Amino acid sequence: MSGFDSATPRRAEILPLGDCALLVRFGERLDDAANQAALVLADRLAGAGIMGIKEIVPSLVSVLVRYAPEMIGPNRLAGEIALLLGAKAAERQAPIHDIEVRFDGPDVAEVAAALGLGVDDFILRHNAAPLRVLTTGFAPGFVYCGLHEEALVLPRRTSVWPMVPAGSVLFAAGQTAIVATDIPTGWHVIGQTAFRNFRPDADPPTLLRAGDLIRFTSVP
């Protein structure tokens, strides 16, 4: 399974954000095409060598581009971005990471029941196909993976877990998330993994990047 070669560019809005950043937005809500378009643009920007760009931050459906105004102006940068948006997508082979999960979280039975499944069937459906890393952030090493099929879409919890430990595997809104630090969450906690995506002493401190593929497997 390849990375960005199948992404169909989505019409983008290029918006000013403060006095030294542009936001390139591909949609108002998360969907697969908008996310892939954001990842394609971030990948192109990273390889374009445009002088004056200080930071490129992809999100679920947008890309933040911070620039040095003394080196490049917003109009010129917007023009450079527009050229990249119109370019033909180059194929990028996305790395696949195998992550083992113990599906024993406190919410897994409730999640399965809400979806009309037994726990074993839910696990099989959850692990049936690789998921793409949609974006990273929110907390150090936090990873959003998706998107699940429509039949596995479930809202977040109506109450918040005051704290879940690093390694917790979360589920909500058609996504699975992996927690790398202890955090509170309103997502359903479906399991635990020994994988940690945040190693503060390493360079870089995270292993996964947006666009990578995750293959979840179940362990006792």
TrEMBL record:
The keyword ATP-binding applies. Keywords: ATP-binding, Hydrolase, Nucleotide-binding. Residues 12-208 form the Carboxyltransferase domain. SMART domains: AHS1. GO terms for molecular function: ATP binding; hydrolase activity. Gene3D superfamilies: 3.30.1360.40, Cyclophilin-like. This is Allophanate hydrolase subunit 1. It comes from Devosia sediminis. The lineage of its organism: Bacteria, Pseudomonadati, Pseudomonadota, Alphaproteobacteria, Hyphomicrobiales.
